[in-house]
Amino acid sequence: MLLMIYDIETKKDPHGIRVRLVRSLRRGGAFQLQKSAWILEEFSEDILRVTDEFRRAGGSVKIAEWLPRSVSEVSGRGTSQSKVIALAIMGSEPVIEGWHNMVKGILERLGYKVLMRGVSESAIAELAKSARAWYGPCLVGKKTNSRMLDEVALLDVDSVVLLNCGRSAQSGMIFGSQTIANTKILKNMTSMPLIQVERPGKTDGVLLVWNESGRDLGGRIAEEMGLPLITPSLEAKMITKAGGREVRQIHFASMGDAVVVNGHKIGVCLADQVYLIGEKGKLVDLMGGKLFKREAKKISFDSISSVMVKTISSS
Fold this sequence. Notes:
By secondary structure, the protein is of the alpha+beta class. It folds into 3 domains: 2-65, Alpha-Beta Plaits (2-Layer Sandwich); 71-230, Rossmann fold (3-Layer(aba) Sandwich), CATH 3.40.50.11220; 239-312, no CATH class. It is 29% helix and 28% strand. The chain is built from 10 helices and 18 strands. The chain has a 6-stranded mixed beta sheet, with helices on both faces. Helix 1 runs antiparallel to helix 2 (45-56). The chain is globular and about 65 Å long.
């Protein structure tokens, strides 16, 4: 990732080049770290063009390789007295059932300051309804869960705890792995503890530790909540290639389940073994199910591994 810092004197910017640069960065999918400081995966032709215009107008631009670190990591003392955890709510169910406040209370008893954030439209809406406050890290718009989770990771926090209530512990694990694997920033912050509380209060509830640095904190939370602790891999997706096509198995599918891809209901399962088929960035078939072609045409991707997939029970 790249860090871009820029500045221009007001008198040199009568035509609003700073505003055009900001718009270009947003179009290019960049992350705003602070005012006049952005994080980019790469420079598009559009960003390069506007950056050149910015510099010709008298502005200054500096670029550096960006490697994020938390305050607690670089401090020799660990700054344990001021550690901050982001509690990222994935979906409305944890809020409806009250688990967001219960987990927040547990983390506070462990000595952490908690920043609660919604990382889905339904979570943000439910949090706002329950507390009459805004709990989103940003305006949602068309942002994916992974994008919003990256924006949570850019907050001044030392750890991230995901809170989710999936259809089962297994499906929640797959959903978590997909969401994290599709982040651009969080998945590379291996020194930041990353933990997922899945289906608290349910018989199959579990605590997932997604990186080695989260093992100690995960163990403490698991003990407090009486949850078993497991350490899954982010490589939980099964992608194979056949000629010019990509084949991806849909995990934990059941006959009659709706298949939702990137928020669009694209089909229904007609068997327990179901596969998405992609070609040239488009969904072309649903093996073991019925594809709704009109909805499927709304989906585009670089690789079928990058799409968010979930199934919804018909019962």
